[in-house]
Structure formats: C-alpha cells, structure tokens
Structure of Nucleotide sugar dehydrogenase:
Amino acid sequence: MRLSAADHVRTQHRAADHRADRGAPDTGAAGTVAADPVTRDAGALDVPVQPNVLAQPNIVANNIAADHIVPVPRPRSGLGRPTPVLSALSVPGIATVAVVGMGYVGLPTALALHRQGIGVIGLDVSQTRLSAIRSRQVDLLPTDLGRLAAALEDPGFRVTDDADELAEADAVIICVPTPVDAHLNPDLQALAGACAAVVARARPGQVLVLTSTTYVGCTRDLLVTPLAERGLRAGEDVFVAFSPERIDPGIAEHEHTTTPRVLGGVTPECAQWASDVVGLLTESVHLVSSAEAAELTKLYENTFRAVTLALANEFAGICRSLDLDPVEVTRAAATKPYGFLATYPGPGVGGHCIPCDPHYLLWQLRSSRTPAPLIEQAMTAIAERPHQVVARAVEVMSDLGRGLGGARVLVVGVAYKPGVQDVRETPAVEIIPGLEARGASVWYVDPLVPSMSLPDGRLMASHASAADEDWDLVLLHTVHPQHDYSWVSRSTTVLDATYRFESLPSRHVV
C-alpha cells in the first residue's frame, strides 16, 4: 500500500525511535565489526563527481546529473521464492524499499520484497523495460511470472521512471549493471548515474545498499563521499552498505531465501541496519568488517569461477588429445568429497558476470602495479575460447575432405547458458561471425531467443524450420531444458561444444 505523507512521517519517526533503542553490533578494535564473521538469522541538487571518481574509467561528470540515471540494458531471468522467512513487521521502520534497476537482479529482488509485505518502488529509466514488466513480457521463471502478475495488481508495488519517488523509501537497493568497455576497463556510467540520483534524494534515516559488482572502494566513492558533501554522514544520518547480489539465472534451486548474502557496512551501525533490509531476502546474512571486504568478496567469487572455467576448457583439449572424454573424467574427479569443484567445459563463457567482473579487479590491480598473472591468463583463455571453437569447426570439416567455404552451418542455441534468454557476452556472437569469415553460411535456432544482434549491427533471426533441413555442420552451443533436440541425431556432422550429446554417432567435440 502506498504511504500517505502523514504515514511516511510516522514511519520516519518509528525508524528514529527504533534506532535509538538499538545497540551497535559486537565490535572489535577501532570500532569495526568483530573479526569473527557474524551470521544473523533473518527474523534535490546535482551531485558533483568527486575527484577520485573522475579518475575512474568511463565516468563523465556531465553524464551524472542527479536527475538522470543512465539507461539500463534489459538483463533477464529470475528465481522462484519459497515461504517468506520474515514479515515486514519484524523490521521496524522499513515499510517501503526502492529498487533501482529493474533488470535480471532488480526485478526478482523487488518481487521477493513484495512477498514479505514490503511496499516496493521499482525504478528504471528504460521505458522499454518498464513496458515489458507491466505487460509481463519478461524472462522469469514461471513461479515468478505468477508473482509479478499478482504484484502488478497491488498499489503497494509500483514501477516508475520517476527518481523523485526514491525519497519516499525507507531503504534503497541499487541493482544496476556494471559491464566493461571495449578496452576491458570498468564501464561505470550506469552505476555512477544511479548512485548520483540516490544521493541527491537521500534523506536522514534511509538505508542505502549497493549490490552491483564493482571495484574495491566504489561504495565510498559513489555513495559515502557525495552523501557527506550533502551533510549526510554514513552511520549517523544514513546507513550505507555493500551486499553483492547472488543470483543464478534460470536455476530455481538457487533461491533468494536459501542463498546466504555477504554484507559489509561502512560502519557497524550501517551493517546492523542494512543487514535487516537484506535479511528480508535471505535466511542468513554473513557480516564482514567493511564495505570493501564485501566488494572484494564478490570479485573473488567470480574470479574463482572464471579460473575454474578456463581450466575446464583447457582440460577438455587435453582430454581430446589423449582420446578421453572430459565429462567422464570430471564426473570421476567429482566423486572426491573434498578439494575438487566439478566444472564442465563448453563453447565459452558468457553472461554479465564472469567475462566482465575479473576485469574490474585487474584494472584496479594495474593502478597499484600488483601482478595477477593467473587471473590474466584465465581471462585471456576465456576470450580465446570462441576462436578455438571456430578453429575446431574448420578442422572437423577439413578432416571430412572439405572446408567451411560454402558450407551450411546451423548453430543450435545462442543464449549464454541453458534456460535463459540472455545473450550478453554469449560466445555465439563471436562464433557466428568467425564461421562466416571462413566462408560458411550460418543460421541459428534458439527457442528462447527469437533474434539477436551481431557485432556488425546485423539482426539475425532464429531459423523457424531448422529441424527439417539438411546441414553440412550442426554446432551445438546451448541446449535448453524441456526442449526437443532429437532431430540433431539425423545430422551427418555435429560439433558438440556442450559436451552433452555423448551418444551421437556423428559427434565431434571441441
């Protein structure tokens, strides 16, 4: 239910009274959160850009007016939600939460908050995205689509492009994309614009939680420092924290409530208040000593994943050279109950996270001349993987007595992972032009991706009758659950970059 002005004032007073009654969390030396991690049960002016922010890549002062949020791309997918673990009544003073950025993280976050009885303001400057949400034409799991339909009927759940509504919220969660640019440097335009809009409308008593993956120190640069210039002190007037998102698109098992969240406050008081807000989303909040520790935690998580994926792809090549099956070997190794994490090879690494996030760390390390050769090599290997797929296609066709020149090639699946519509950073956008550059005529089929843009600006549409045609080469890139791929067995030559079709007689692997 939308609060009236009088209700909003009463909510502010409740928040102030509650803060006065609360004690600070256990602290260690120098007023920081105790070194032992704590797991808690979930029970208007233009803002000038700071000098240290101007030194960051892709932040232009004129592009960060407080009344403008840089448009957010339309990431997709969401998660199912089990029974709520908290009710809104268990967090005094938190009646309305604003979610800035209604993409693949923000929309599921908003729906999870709504399930707890929290009033939600979903902010996004993309009218296309807002229209898609209102018409329910978004990539969510079926359970979340049902929840979206119900939420849109509730006056307490509203989506808007009016940033001034942020002032009505008791807490603000920032969920905007943080990609890299063409030079693999952080592209912080969307994040900087969103933070500037939040800062310009922040009011005493608000809790501000940044969830977007970013460099270490960003929370202070884009929130704490400009807030202080407005006279709002973190830990006293407003409560600022970093709690990185943890969402596995398309996987219902990894739900908000059952996935622990890491959180680091700018002060212990910030951590206490922000953990109450994040605790509405999850059963446990793991507190760390600072926002910076939480920022680096997220970079470590995704860098770890990048390194293991690069190793899995390299090991697949080793297995092929020894005439062994990498999936069989990986499954066997995974029987060891400790010291091994099963990671399987594929056509490459896509999505908004793994191909991008380690570059935030590498960029920051370069500024301090700190070497990270293992991470650099892993990211190089990830970048090279689509080219290896193309080279393998050339090799397979050459071994059959013909090259790719003039060949009819079908790429099966172009989403970056099974079960999603997302094509951001998908290896397919490099594989398809690579095959074409070697003379092939290329089509794709993907039941979840009706069309996609290629790097040269062309719009390619999914082939409607691909299963009924003959192809010189079928390249398996992404196979979605609950879709029929039995027709692939009729193909004379298959390059299986998914390593999933073990029984195909015409199968080759990368």
About this structure: Residues 1-90 have pLDDT under 50 and may be disordered. The domain at 5-289 is CATH 3.40.50.720 (Rossmann fold).
